[in-house]
Amino acid sequence: MTLTLDIRQRLGAFTLEAAFQAGPGVTALFGASGAGKSSIVNAIAGLSRPDAGRIAFAGSDLFNAETGTHLLAHHRRVGVVFQDNRLFPHFSVAQNIRYGARLAGGVDAAQESRITDLLGITALMNRRPGALSGGEKSRVALARALLMRPRLLLMDEPLAALDGPRKEEILPYLERLRDQAGPPILYVSHSVAEIARLSDHIVMLDQGRVLRAGPAQDLLSDPALMPQFGIREAGAILTATVEAHAPDGLSRLRISGGALWVMGVGAPVGTRLRLRLLASDIILAAEAPRAISARNVLPVTVETVQQGHGPGAAVSLRCGEDRLLARITSRAVAEIGLEPGRDCFAILKATAIARSDIGSVQA
After folding, report:
1. How far, in Å, CA of 138 to CA of 186, rounded?
2. How far apart are CA 140 and CA 173, in angstroms?
3. What is the pLDDT of residue 104?
4. Sequence ranges of the chain with CATH classification 2.40.50.100
5. In sequence order, which residues have a C-beta less than 8 Å from that of residue 5 and are 6 or more positions away?
């Protein structure tokens, strides 16, 4: 099932003019505040009406300016989870999550049990929102949206109001939802860490227009997009398999280009993981180093070198079937002689990959 959007909408002094497609899995809408992310969500959900264009899902029009089609929000079967959750404070958790189901035609007890188990809220059903943590409220809001049996799920900055520990609490549930073949998800965020961990595809927005769209692995490791993601947040995502756990707390992970030693991995041997490697954590060497503290030395080949406006440069590297991204100085590029096709070595400390940058992948 694919969402097709091509719309134009005047919003005060701001004009939204965006076109893209979003298929199964998680498609992230990424951009700075005011880029048009929430405006797109409102148009898809039926909470606003574009001036021109078309929005279609699974071949059926939700909105079509030419034919005059504009389905009402409650006829679209689109679930929406907002940043502030919007739970009814006088309802229990059970009453909150069943509210949407009733609008969709009734409560399915088996589906309710499956969703509450999936999101870990079965023990919370009799509580009211005031007695819940931020992460628990987010999971309840997600359960309410899912019980509506949506064909498409829209999530508008669902973790923005949560602190680090609460985000870490709910991210595994979102990964599980993504990997269990649920409805396609359009995920709005300005957090590179979130979209790197969750998204399959990224639509990058800038001032109401689509700047780039494509697979998350390609966009996150593209040196030309480093300014948009931020030089401190840019990096690559890789898929790895847990091979072994050492007594000293390090774990060996297998990637296409070799092995990585990483800290803080509790997953069993054989588990597939998703890793984010920040460009600022990668060091490049012309020759394989000896007797260094960094545990990871990977043979790589330079693909492209993108010179910045200042003293920095972004280097795209091929590592097996994966692409890495390194942020180094232009002086280092010149001294090492880095150019497309040059073989060298990427160096990464075992402590460099944060626990929050290690996610799950469907087996």
Report:
1. 16
2. 12
3. 65
4. 235-360
5. 18, 19, 20, 21, 22, 40, 43, 44, 53, 54, 55, 56
What does the buried/exposed string (b/e) look like for 36-62 if buried means 16 or more CB atoms within 10 Å of the residue's CB? bbbbbbbbbbbebebeebbbbbeeeeb
Residue with tokens 């609460």: 166
Domain(s) of CATH 3.40.50.300: residues in the chain: 3-220
Q: Are 178 and 185 in contact (CB under 8 A)?
A: yes
Give CA–CA dist 40/34, Å, rounded. 11
Tell me the per-residue pLDDT of 85-122, one tens digit each, with 9 for 90 and over. Answer: 788 999 999 999 888 777 666 777 888 888 888 888 89
Q: Are the beta carbons of 344 and 286 closer than 8 angstroms?
A: yes
Q: Which of 93, 103, 6 is nearest to 51 (CA)?
A: 6
Enter the CATH code of domain 235-360. Answer: 2.40.50.100
CA distance 70 to 48: 10
The architecture that CATH gives domain 3-220 is 3-Layer(aba) Sandwich (3.40)
Nearest-angstrom CA–CA distance, 43 and 19 = 13
The arithmetic mean of pLDDT across residues 234-243, rounded, is: 95
Cβ pair 158, 81 in contact under 8 A: yes
Q: d(Cα 135, Cα 133) in Å, to the nearest integer?
A: 5
- pLDDT tens for residues 183-235? 899 999 989 999 999 999 999 999 999 999 999 999 999 999 998 999 889 99
CA atoms within 13 A on the CB side of 51: 10
How many other C-beta atoms lie within 10 A of the C-beta of residue 348?
Answer: 22
Q: How far is CA 28 from CA 23, 33, 160, 261, in A?
A: 11, 14, 14, 29
Q: What is the pTM of this model?
A: 0.89
Name 272's Cβ contacts closer than 8 Å, sequence gap at least 6.
239, 240, 241, 242, 360, 361, 362, 363
Q: How many CA atoms lie within 13 A of 335 on its CB side?
A: 8
Question: Edge-to-edge, what's the strand order for the sheet holding 343-348?
Answer: 283-285, 343-348, 296-307, 312-319, 322-329
Q: CA 39 to CA 25: how far, in whole Å? A: 21
Q: Is the pLDDT score of 154 beyond 90?
A: yes
Q: In what order do the strands lie in the sheet with 209-215?
A: 78-81, 152-156, 185-189, 26-30, 201-206, 209-215
